[in-house]
Amino acid sequence: MSTEGMRDDLKVLDVSGHDWMADPCSQEIWLIQQPGQLTRYHPAQQEITRVLYLQQDCANVWVGFIDSAVESGGCVARRIRGALEATPANG
Known about the structure:
single chain, mainly alpha
């Protein structure tokens, strides 16, 4: 492994993890969608509303992974930018 670009002035003080299987709110490790779940809720992601959902579990690709959080964030950011550009400035 290359150490190029690594900082030698930082020191790891602590590391932690979480037992998601034992967590009473999740009781699982990652999202496993049921058959038809993505296609059933996909239209809600496309609607223009005042509430925009941004999270890894409602992304269109790589659900449950960091890639899905990035994809979901990009989609919502583009929708917000488009809405702002379409709104005339108050002046």
